[in-house]
């Protein structure tokens, strides 16, 4: 992470602390409520530029016997961290994502995520997140990521004809 990042302030019209941040879209693998397969993560705004989220570890998320697949956990971090810049009212995509896997996460457990925006420079937004299973003092994973602000319409312009919509 560069040393010249600046603090980023919450947008005055951002989702208020304690409220759910809206879906990226209904078919999003991370948050969509109509996706045929997906994590269905709801991200809740915290104070400042922080968020929280939870995810129940379902049987279909299994990697090693009895534990979550690392890629599923990575996707969950991506979703939570990629939603958090909406507190700045900035749409982003992931440029870089790194995960530290500290402990196995059993099927049936509930993963609690906390995320904060560390700052940014230009279109770059740096975030950090942690995960625990109920005891915030016992971390099971951590992550940091770089998100890049995009122009939504331009970024997805060449792909929208491939978009999948629920019920079609
Ligand atoms: C309907 C609702 C939908 C809502 C949609 C939102 C859904 C969110 C879902 C969760 C998030 C995801 O999974 S998103 C899906 C996964 N990610 C992607 O598909 C992104 C694919 N990559 C790209 O499209 C592109 O590489 C971009 C947009 C990230 C950047 O391209 P660009 O716009 O041409 O900009 P570029 O100049 O290259 O980069 C801008 C600055 O970032 C730096 N930068 C770029 N990538 C990196 C990197 N990996 N590591 C370090 N630095 C990087 C550059 O050096 C530069 O710094 P400087 O020169 O300014 O210093």
Automatic annotation (TrEMBL):
<dbReference type="InterPro" id="IPR052365">
    <property type="entry name" value="THEM4/THEM5_acyl-CoA_thioest"/>
</dbReference>
<keyword id="KW-0472">Membrane</keyword>
<feature type="domain" description="Thioesterase">
    <location>
        <begin position="66"/>
        <end position="118"/>
    </location>
</feature>
<dbReference type="GO" id="GO:0016020">
    <property type="term" value="C:membrane"/>
</dbReference>
<keyword id="KW-1003">Cell membrane</keyword>
<protein>
    <recommendedName>
        <fullName>Acyl-coenzyme A thioesterase THEM4</fullName>
        <ecNumber>3.1.2.2</ecNumber>
    </recommendedName>
</protein>
<keyword id="KW-0809">Transit peptide</keyword>
<dbReference type="GO" id="GO:0016787">
    <property type="term" value="F:hydrolase activity"/>
</dbReference>
<keyword id="KW-0966">Cell projection</keyword>
<dbReference type="InterPro" id="IPR006683">
    <property type="entry name" value="Thioestr_dom"/>
</dbReference>
<keyword id="KW-0378">Hydrolase</keyword>
<comment type="similarity">
    <text>Belongs to the THEM4/THEM5 thioesterase family.</text>
</comment>
<dbReference type="GO" id="GO:0005737">
    <property type="term" value="C:cytoplasm"/>
</dbReference>
<keyword id="KW-0276">Fatty acid metabolism</keyword>
<keyword id="KW-0053">Apoptosis</keyword>
<keyword id="KW-0963">Cytoplasm</keyword>
<dbReference type="InterPro" id="IPR029069">
    <property type="entry name" value="HotDog_dom_sf"/>
</dbReference>
<dbReference type="Pfam" id="PF03061">
    <property type="entry name" value="4HBT"/>
</dbReference>
<keyword id="KW-0443">Lipid metabolism</keyword>
<dbReference type="GO" id="GO:0006631">
    <property type="term" value="P:fatty acid metabolic process"/>
</dbReference>
